[in-house]
Amino acid sequence: MPLRPPPLFMRSPHIRSSLQQLRLRRPASNSRNRRRPGPEQAQTGPRFGLGLGFVSLMFLMWNFESVPVSGRWRFNFVPASIELQSGAHWYKQIIQEYEGRILPDTHAYSRMVNRVMERLVAGWGEGEWEAVVIDDDETVNAFVLPGGKVFVFSGFIPLCENDDGLASILGHEIAHNIAHHVGESMSTRWVLIALAYAISVYLNLPHGLIDRVLDIGYQKPGSRRQESEADYIGFLLMAGACYKLEEAAAVRDRVIKAANDQWERTPQFLSTHPS
After folding, report:
1. What residues contact residue 18 under an 8 Å CB cut-off, 6+ apart?
2. I want to staple 164 with a disulfide (CB 3.0 to 4.6 A). Which of 109, 115, 242, 244 is the partner?
3. pLDDT for residue 124
């Protein structure tokens, strides 16, 4: 078969030279000829991981602190100012929610709560404390917000029966405030949210499943640890104010009986309070 002459435009030496240069510049399609990452690029991943681990370790160590009174060491990066802002926000919300149901300071229940609270915090000398009694005989509850805002529902006071029984309840709740458990819980929750997201992405698992496992395995045991610590600090407050410590067990028995043993039906690993 005779060879066909090249097209007329290919006969130009300038065009042939340009085509040859294009062929030389074209990247090779063979994977063996591809450029491999150098040693510096190969070490970028491990270096980043080590750097991140070092920063995380320093952040953890920097935010370790001792709990007041009990001396327990814990991780907490939430400052007291954030706690106070949170307490002020919830204080306004609760006052608005129960508007018209706040008992006056002259009421017998209010006088009782203020009397016991002032006696418990007399030796502490930190913060400004305020007691609020909510007129709700169906609710058995009491809590303290950051900033020393003490709330007691009127349904709880008859179960206390006396000042010593009420001191066991208020001492426990005031202890949560003294130990800054709100900030500790906020710190733990934020870290667990980030950890659950990272694990779910890395293992391609549902975020809700990881969050539930971390909640049962870490957060609920931490809550029970805080409750036991609040009992310990609360007993010290009661003893310092010369209240009878044995009333704490009596009040607990009466509350459990009134709640139809609801606390005892909850499995221990799902409970936020120690049994």
Report:
1. none
2. 244
3. 74
